[in-house]
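User: We ran a pulldown and think these components assemble together. Before we commit to crystallization trials, I'd like a predicted model of the whole complex to look at. Sequences follow.
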Amino acid sequence: MSSTRDIDALIELMAKLPGLGPRSARRAVLHLIRKRSLLLTPLADVMQIVAATARECLNCGNVGTTDICDICTSEKRANGELCVVEDVADLWAMERSGVFKGRYHVLGGTLSALDAVGPEDLRIPRLVDRVASEGIDEVILALNATIDGQTTAHYIADQLEGRARLTSLAQGVPIGGELDYLDDGTITAAMRARKAL
Amino acid sequence: MSSTRDIDALIELMAKLPGLGPRSARRAVLHLIRKRSLLLTPLADVMQIVAATARECLNCGNVGTTDICDICTSEKRANGELCVVEDVADLWAMERSGVFKGRYHVLGGTLSALDAVGPEDLRIPRLVDRVASEGIDEVILALNATIDGQTTAHYIADQLEGRARLTSLAQGVPIGGELDYLDDGTITAAMRARKAL
Ligand SMILES: [Zn+2]
Ligand SMILES: [Zn+2]
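Assistant: Here's a predicted model for the assembly, 394 residues in total across the polymer chains.
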């Protein structure tokens, strides 16, 4: 490589991002260098800020820049509905659809015998606490329509039985599909037609 | 979006990179936040350094961190051979193959009637100067095997006729192919079998 050490280091780090390999990382770095003032400098600046400030919400697992996220601190969102998702990307997909006005609980994954992920590895104990302490009437299990997602939904339903009304997203989520891949309209339709477990 | 302003800004800037769209930018940002100390902080730091130091070599157009790049300042590379490429990514591809020991000249594109790119928009006048002033015996035209690439090669060959031996990469570069997509072996074979124009 004829580029100097720092440029090589930048390419190497960019290649570690999901969706980028060595070749696309090289293209991205050349693009960044060419768009220095429009892209590289602003990106470097905001990355420094996010590196210094980003954290997981201690209550729900959402990503934000405060110990308790904007959704958890908003009184408007305390409507008695709690939507359980696997991942922050799923929470973002729900928020883009704009259909849900309550709060979230991000599990941080699914139960998996294969990967030895048990309830204590997710935020399931904290979920049980929240249902009691936040006056939750309805828990919407918006987990992915995968085997692990549905296994996790059933486990949570067992834990919460009798403590809140349990619902899941309606048919409309494709079998084997992941929330973050769906368009907003599909999510909205599935949410509106949600059914009791 | 439930994420705060800085995280949104980071997603928006990442989505401007070639090869990333909004969805893959969101995935990349979540990955960065999760790997804060291993990936986000080092990436932010090296990006700041590259934003402050990266520049185009005033002599050849290569990207580096000095006004004149390492290849142009290395006496070892002054072997009388000059390899003309369209883009820095092509120079990097040549360097990875390790087959070429001379210097480079990066045009920064190709002549294009459609996009109104003329000789003065590329580094062609500077190329003519360099052939005279750097004691170049052989100019290897390593342009892409596209119509614009070959048009540009013929134009440069006309300009340099009688001033240096002109060669081009051997057959072996696929028709319509671009250097940066080729494996090192193909580039090495095409370079070794280069022929006089
Ligand atoms: Zn929260
Ligand atoms: Zn140079």
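The domain at 73-168 of chain A is CATH 3.40.1360.10 (Dna Topoisomerase Vi A Subunit; Chain: A, domain 2). That may be worth checking against your pulldown data before setting up trials.

User: Thanks, that helps.
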